[in-house]
Design brief:
This protein is α/β, with parallel strands linked by helices. The protein has seven helices and seven strands. Strands 3-2-1-4-5-6-7 form a seven-stranded parallel beta sheet, with helices on both faces. Helix 1 packs across helix 7, helix 3 runs parallel beside helix 4 and helix 4 packs parallel to helix 5. It binds NADP nicotinamide-adenine-dinucleotide phosphate. The site of NADP nicotinamide-adenine-dinucleotide phosphate has 26 residues, from helix 1 and helix 4.
Length: 257
Amino acid sequence: MDNSNANNINKGTTSGKTVLITGGAKRIGAVTTHTLHQAGYNVIIHCRLSREAADTLAAELNRERADSAKVIQGDLNNETIYNHLIEEAYQCWNRLDVLVNNASSFYPTPVGSITLDDWHNLLNSNLKAPLFLAQAAAPYLKQVEGNIINMTDVHAQRPMKDHPVYCAAKAGLVMLTMSLAKELGPEVRVNSVAPGAILWPDNEMPEHTKSMILERTTLKKPGDPIDIAKTILFLVRDAHYITGQMIAVDGGRNVNI
Ligand SMILES: NC(=O)c1ccc[n+]([C@@H]2O[C@H](COP(=O)([O-])OP(=O)(O)OC[C@H]3O[C@@H](n4cnc5c(N)ncnc54)[C@H](OP(=O)(O)O)[C@@H]3O)[C@@H](O)[C@H]2O)c1
């Protein structure tokens, strides 16, 4: 690809590769967006409610490197938009190299209170959308030997109290990662990253719960979103012989849970 565009501010250099990050406007998604952009990727920031944050992030990145960040929007509870989102992402720069399935709804569903709405809401963003986005993206990813990263959770393998639906969805996403690696190889690599305690949820979490989680984390401290972003960058850029794997970035939570 010709990167000699005179209008290109080019604070960073572009690889010409593109990445779609779902839920990429805030928190871990935003740090991942920033990190991949710094590494030369053009970024497509998907958001649902956080349009303002997504536009602000895209403007910041476009100041660093012209025409390097775009925003697309859509609710992953709406299954009719999955194909459209991928088409929109592809048409930003007429290629798609990486899909990061990061968007996720997360809240407790104690047994006895679970509704079908909870089931659909938690399964849609955490399992259904990753599958159908991957399916729609696969032909484009195959053209460029691309990558899919699914954001799972240490609790995909060991249940979190009062979160059976979320945990089941993430467990499904671990299997989907392995299945898609098999189905889409050899052209496309598919891996997952499983965070432990990185950022506390936006909704109120009691201090004693946070202390208990950190006590059960081998490194006795929370991680940082950059730990996740760097792992994603490693997987998509450097890990040419890794596919179908889940990397836990959890300070040793899974050996101590
Ligand atoms: N935070 C942690 O410590 C931790 C621990 C374990 C696993 N993880 C996983 O790591 C990933 C990032 O974590 P996070 O805490 O940064 O995530 P988050 O803030 O809880 O959610 C990320 C984004 O998901 C989007 N989203 C949720 N439901 C959606 C829907 N129906 N349609 C479209 N977008 C939707 C939201 O976008 P809008 O704001 O635009 O609506 C939200 O900003 C997630 O997959 C999470 O499960 C995180």
